[in-house]
Design a protein that fits this description.
Layout: H1 19-38, H2 40-51, H3 55-63, H4 66-82, H5 85-105, H6 109-137, H7 140-169, H8 176-179, H9 181-195, H10 209-232, H11 236-258, H12 272-302, H13 307-313, H14 315-335, H15 337-355, H16 364-391, H17 398-435, H18 443-449, H19 453-474, H20 481-534, H21 552-558, H22 564-567
Helix pairs in contact: 1-6, 1-7, 1-9, 2-7, 3-6, 4-5, 4-6, 4-10, 4-17, 5-6, 5-9, 6-17, 7-13, 7-14, 7-16, 10-11, 10-17, 12-15, 12-16, 12-17, 12-20, 14-15, 14-16, 15-16, 15-20, 16-17, 17-20, 18-19, 19-20
Length: 568
Amino acid sequence: MSLLIREPVERMDRPYARRWWALGVLCLSLLIAVMANTALTVAAPDMTRDLDLSSSDLQWVIDAYTVPYAALMLLFGAIGDKYSRRGALVLGLVVLSAGAGAGALVDSATAVIAARAVMGVGAAMIMPATLSLLASTFPREERAKAITLWAATSGIAIAAGPLIAGALLEHYGWASTFLIDIPVAAVAVLGAFVLVPPSKAADQGRIDYVGGLLSVVWIGALIYMIIEGPGFGWGASAVTAAVIAAVGLALFVVWELRHPRPVLDVRKFAERGFSGANLAVALFFVAVFGAFLYLTQHLQFVLQYDPLETGIRMLPLAGAVFLGTALTGVLTPRLGAKVMVTAGMVGGTTALALLTATDAGSTYGDFVPALIILGVSLGFAVSPCTDAIMGAFPESELGVGGAVNDTSLELGGSLGIAVLGSVLATSYADGLADETKGSKLPAYALEQAQDSVGAGGGVAQAIGGQARKLAEQAGAPGTTPQKAAELKAQAGELAQNAEQMKHAVGSAFSDAVAHTSLVGAVVLGAGTLIVAFLLPRKGQEKRPQESAGEGPEGARETVKEPVAQGRG
């Protein structure tokens, strides 16, 4: 028997025997794609110092991954459906690895941004492929359980990224957080050929490339606007992106409604359950990515944990996600998706509400209940939504279904980082100005400290460094008593200013976390009401589309001479 599996899953006469091993490969691939983004949150300070990144540079180092990732998923999902879902997965892993290798070797902001964009292109192939291969490999009665494990991996990767990056940064530079992707991706590529059966849609016909390109234009422009507008101001580029996104979306909808085989049947969004599931995914990840952004900063810059310690302290979130998904697998068949998703969104709102109590005296222990509730809630909400979204697509469009789910997730995450990040930055800057009012801090130093909490900490350290230098000069041989007294007085004043600045930065950022959490809780709470209205009750869900003989079960009935490996 050949080591590599070549038998297409559509030709197998029974469920693929090694499907749970195949799921492990798909989850590993998903882990790489998600961690490539979340690991950067703890590597960013080292990268900023080594490459001398401005705040704008750092923002685009992070978001250069997001724009192609979100914009290309729908088109790549359709291409994978037609030609090869496994091929799309493998090619995506190779492209992401190539981008990661380049990112580790370059030494300029522009080059790192370009490398991150290449990684985003690879992730855009990987993400829809993981879901489409999952759905094509597992029979319908097992899909919900498989998707639950897939969703758990996605949630765990959010917390695991900072942990692994933190461990690497203990001994190596920020480049190691890029290089780690390469051996893991190599294992996933090998696993894909050995364990994941090839799959593609039967009789797909010509791809709607016009619709696909229009989706790239409007989604890419929308993501760019979301990043640029709140973060850098509504200048010409952000406004132009908004116009392009609006016009592109209108053209996309008109074209898809008229096309006989659209890349995405936009009529699906008229179905309440489908729209509700997509809205729930987007809104939940607004909260998760937004909270993740400011909690990791608070742990590092206010509570002074190093990258590894920060990653360890995010583990309760990962454990809670696993617990939530395990409970979801048991409770969803009994209570229905509507109850589980609504409960998850209520829990997420509660977690954000708990964070509104954050102040300068808050410790890590004050964050743990919110992390646990947020993780369990994520487990409750995401897998039922993903199952509902994938169930709305026939077997020939599983890649497109995976792309729709992942695009909703990425749009939500981008909104969370951009909008809540903008609220956080504005609240912090205003709070720091209030905290330092009446101080002798120079205007340029205050402006620099207002740029970010990391910059504020840097200003406090710089002032403290000046105080130490003056103290050393005061004790230097040959310094007259009068001069030494003057230097000591100046050093004492600077040391006091440094301590005041450190306290002001921590207090202002803590208040900003509380204010931003309140905004997030209001947004998620309002969204919960809308989603609860849209999602159908148990027993009223629309049955998944599947043409006779098209899905795995139907296809297997038509096979007269199954191959031995297909039988497992």
